[in-house]
Amino acid sequence: MNLKRLFLRALAIVGVATAAPAAAEPILLDAGSVGESFTISFDGFVDGGPSIDGLGSELTLTLTGIENGVYTFDYTMTNTGADGDGIGSRVSGFAFNTDPDIDSATSTGTYGYTNTGSNFPNGIGTVDVCFQARRTGSCAGGGSGGVFDGDSGSGTLSLDFGGTAPASLTLDDFFVRYQSVTGVHGVGSASGRQTSTSGGTTSGTDVPEPGMMLLFGLAILGLAIGTRRRRPRAAAPVRLAYA
Hints:
alpha+beta, 12 strands, single chain, 2 helices, 12-stranded antiparallel beta sheet
């Protein structure tokens, strides 16, 4: 493989690794999980880019019951953006995917409105359900409401499976929506991806940020180029002289 082809292949690998939103450990639930709490941490980013310092949040979910085809939860959303860093934001909603798919969802409290099968901004794409502080036609959010830096909001949410609750449920691909962003040049809104999960039976696996993935990809490229340079050249053919 020539050097140009090797370089292009390495760039493609790095591009795939950095373009896709990271996904942390899913939450697995069944009847034995009632009463357990899980905390999901989020970063903040725009259009698949690296994390933005000063944007962060945490969602705590507690499974409170499973009855008549419905999983019910208490939730608390905390905007963990640091005061005094010159960056402000408002968490206007959060979202996740479910397996199996839900029939419908309801919620109360700070995020009392729901959308299902809607698009989430910043390259995330369609999510199974999102919970919002204001009623809107999509998971992009809008208007006002939510929680600002250092504040928390809480309520309940229900996932309805149409009369028969599944024996087990997986929650995965958690995201949050930031609006009213200040102090970041050219950014008025952003999204956040799940970076770690703790509590219950999860192990709290951290997810590498895109910047770290980029460095990893470049390191692989450097090793490949170095190996190519050190490869010994084949010996020149010996020519025999005849009388």
